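Entry for the shared binder. Reason: the reviewer on the internal report wants the predicted structure included alongside the sequence.
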Amino acid sequence: ANIEARLNSPGRGRAVDRKGRKFGLGKAIINSSPIGKNYFYDMYKFGQPGSDEYSSNWISYKLSWRENPYMDELADQIVHTKYGDMTYEEDLRRKIGDRLYRQNYLADFLAIDGTVFKDFEEKCVKNLFDMGLNKQQRDEYAKKWVETVPYHSYRIGYDPATGSSTDTPAVVVRDMDTNQIVMALSLYGKNYDQQWDEIGFISRRYNYAPCTWLRTGHTAVENQLAKRGVVEIPLDEQAGKKSQYIQSLERAVQNGDVHVLNDGTEDIQTMIMEMNDYSEKGGKYSNESQPHDDFVSAMYAVYYDYSEETNRISYCPLM
């Protein structure tokens, strides 16, 4: 957003465009090999006429390595290997694997290997800016999305952290009746008391929602939320329980029982990127390219029992 705004400032490019108009607007060429379906992939879709995200002031190309005449000739050269004679292309694919070959040499956008929440954005995210609404309608839609519904049950997911430069405490709120994520909030910069006060306020706002939080072993959350009138549901992640929570969220994603509104805010977009990026390798879960996974932790906290309960009775603590 910042780069595009600066390019649109007068004097950034040619003084006169091809039609003789005197704008002098700038242009950008953004070049990369694809690595997963990240924001670079979104920009690629901006320039594809068949895409829902198409914009006429963008154009994008996907060029395989053989588009280069020198590389095309090299690909067909015969090399001698232990496994017999083969083309350089075949030998290359054998050495680096089909996936890396497709990504780095054929420019294919692939989901990150080991991605846990496959198709999360396609199945669970509604983009506010792709709905054909004007600004007033978008504002009204976003406001209605986060409104508290009488008699609905809500649950808060909380990943505690110090709020320092290396750690980000995150909170999400789930409407248990509709499975809408009505809030994704970073509490970065807030100390523990400020975080707990904020959660107390959020709980009261959403029909006195209980809070599921993750025991980290170094954060003394126990009873601190209760002092603020919040029902606490502490979750331990040892003994394979973390995997169970993640699998519950994964099943909810695959069933389409997670509904997120991308309203353009930084916290929501960060949560979406973390969910898209969350991976499993050798039984260990972490983000591949995003620096943190705090929103993912808060998300599986609010879905920790999705696999256990099929019929849930709505709970309203106020009569």
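Summary line for the report: Residues 192-205 form the longest helix (14 residues).
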